[in-house]
Amino acid sequence: MSAESTPIKKAPAVEPGGLIAILGGGQLGRMTAIAARTMGYRVRVMDPEAKCPASFVAETVVGNWDDVAAAQKLVRGADAVTLEIEQIGVDALSEVASLAPLRPGVEPIRIIQDKTLQKTWLAENGFPVGPFRIIRNEEELHHAVKTLAGRVFLKIGRGGYDGRGQVRIGMEALLNKQIITDAWKSIGEKPSVAEQALDLVSEISVMAARNPAGEVRTYPAARNHHENQILAWSVLPAGVSPEIELRAEKLAADIIEKLGIEGLLCVEMFITRQGRLLINELAPRPHNSYHQSERGCVTSQFEQLVRTTCNLPLGDTSLICPAAIVNLLGDVWLTMTPNFAKALEVPGVRLHLYEKRAAKMGRKMGHLSAIGASADEALERVLDAKARLGQPVG
């Protein structure tokens, strides 16, 4: 039989009643587990914390991200494995993949979990990115700041998120080299990416999904607003031009296919004042900017992850109605007694809390979501609801 005529062996679907294992038990694992339970699946998660957010809705194995023995325990008897955090040790991922179908796969995670590899991969494969340099030592950083015209974001290669592990370097560094030295020390003198600061109109993201059968779907673009490098709110639809929307969705579809991911991929993008669409970062999992897909889309990102993990047909990603979310950080609890009743007086608003044990500054404790007749109305409602949290209780 010729190579051309050799039939492709299709992975079987995991039927309801099967066991899904999730690497990570944070809020993303929790919401994925809830979606999986709704569809009739059993769920087991692995997390360093016994009382992680997902532990309240799923069986939990305690283990660090590089704990091979814990990963083996997680996958025992599992029909398929997915993840909600990309910072899993490659050895642990490889062990999991040898025991059960791991979706999205080891190699895509190896590339994405290190920003130096991720950014290089994007550039080498012809995807649009802003000017950047890979930094391995302080001397390279001094040279990069000069080459990138003095306005730079320095991002640690591994482990940074929500503003952690990154520092902004301004034009004054061209006259004061100590600023560059301090920036290098602030990220632990570890391999990093120096990215030229861009003149932006907005930040958007596109979620793509791909199942083992090769089916790909993209969600409408979301518009995102960050404060202190942490997502503050996000709204669907993004309100970009049809031309930008088509380009953004095609980029996300092309990247998930090129990487060969079986699962979800959120592609964060910049729109510059010159009209360029540039890729910022990739996330191979559910994403904060698509929490409102639970309210506004036919299929939420969490149900979609269950579908990709179980090799089921992908769900419809169409927008039913505009929707928005606003994050609730630990700051809310540390600065007030939240008045949730007042927030829930706003039409179309729902409360989502993650059952995290301790509030910390900058820690995501939950979110508010809202729907509306327009994106502006949905956003206004959710921001109004957050403002009402500060009203006196009682």
Brief descriptors of the model:
single chain, alpha+beta, Rossmann fold, D-amino Acid Aminotransferase, Chain A, domain 1, disordered N terminus
Describe the protein's architecture and organization.
With 394 residues, the protein is of the alpha+beta class. The protein has three domains: 19-102, Rossmann fold; 131-196, Dna Ligase, domain 1; 200-388, D-amino Acid Aminotransferase, Chain A, domain 1, CATH 3.30.470. It is 31% helix and 26% strand. The strands form three sheets. Strands 9, 10, 11, 12, 13, 14, 15, 16 and 17 form a nine-stranded antiparallel beta sheet that branches. The chain has a four-stranded parallel beta sheet with strand order 3-2-1-4, sandwiched between helices. The chain has a four-stranded antiparallel beta sheet with strand order 5-8-6-7, sandwiched between helices.
